[in-house]
Amino acid sequence: MAYINLLPWREEALKAKQKEFFTILIAVCLCAFALTFAVNLYFQARIDGQTMRNQFLQNEIQKLDIEIAEIKDLNNKKAALQKRIDVVEQLQRSRNVGTQVLDEIAKIIPNGIYITQIDKQGNSIAITGKSESNNHLANMIRAIELSDLFIDATPESIVADDGSPKLLSSFKMRVKIKGLVNDAKLTTGVNGGGK
To answer: In this model, does residue 194 exceed pLDDT 60?
Structure first.
């Protein structure tokens, strides 16, 4: 007699295959989730590390900005101090300028030139006088240009005096003193020099 299996083996095989399929599907989902979570953790760690580096750089940049501002402030103070030092040195150099001017004028005035008036305004000297000839005046201008104390000898006027017993010409001349700044500039430099 033949063996007949009356149990529902096809349904059981189908259920076993379904169970195996769902088990594999769950395992694949868990692996995919774990892999996604691991990748997410890795990139999040890299992002956090980069954020920390960026924050560190921002903090260092802020420190450097503060130091740069301090350096600029120190440079400004140094420049103001240097201006004051320059003004003091200029004042020191020009302390005896009156004596030096008179001494130098005595050296450069040739015979035949007579000085009647000398006016100092800032670093400029106005000389008024009389000359026996224009050659004497030209010699005086050349001597001024060769002088160590004077520059820019500029004749302003030369007028012949017809009424004098000698043929004298009146002249006015302006001369600048080398290395001497204007008195107005000295005052502003001292008062407005900054802190």
So the answer is: no
Alpha carbons within 13 A on the beta-carbon side of 85? 6
- The Cα–Cα gap between 93 and 58 comes to 51
pLDDT digits (tens, 9 = 90+) for 119-138: 888 788 899 998 888 888 88
Helix-strand-coil split of the chain, %, nearest 5 = 60, 20, 20
The token pair that represents 20 in the structure block: 């195996």
- 2 pLDDT exceeds 90? no
| Spatial distance between the Cα atoms of 71 and 191, rounded to a whole number of angstroms | 24
Nearest to 105 by CA among 179, 170, 152, 175: 175
150: enclosing H helix or E strand: strand 150-160
The answer to pTM > 0.85 is no
Place of tokens 């691991």: 38
